[in-house]
Amino acid sequence: MTENQTDEYFEIIYKPKSSIFSGDYLKIIPSDPNFEPTKEQQKIIINHLAKEYPNNEIKSTLSKNVEFIDSGGNFDSVKCNLCGKNIEIEDWQNDMDRAYQNSFSNLTFQTLCCQKETSLNELEYNMPCGFSKYQIEIINPGIENIEQIGLIKNIESIIDKKIKLIWAHY
Fold first, then answer.
1. Are 30 and 132 in contact (CB under 8 A)?
2. Global model pTM greater than 0.90
């Protein structure tokens, strides 16, 4: 395991010699975009995941600011979480640009479809996306049943937060 730290982020990387690069990633983020795990929690998570994925590169990254955690080429469309209507990508991008201006510290906006306030983090992304300071990435995790190995439950118990899985392809 290696650790990297800058003014912008702290990262722990587990990279076995046998790891294979792929364009497929499983990104794991807490439901609370501002959650910051301790270094000890990050190390526990990496060690746990390395047992489940001994041949995969795994990264645990805590950024200074909230970031948009996307699904890469899997990104398709966005729906309003309140009324279920599709949100035009251009309108979503405008709301994203406004939120980006203040480092995603405020994710709330008023929808054009139903004129109600919601959060960019609560929208229904066709392939899940989210916002977070903290993310875990497993490169090329395969399609094993994540629930069966208890991955979600174990990580949630370590950080005491619900998590979200984001399948990304680059």
1. yes
2. yes
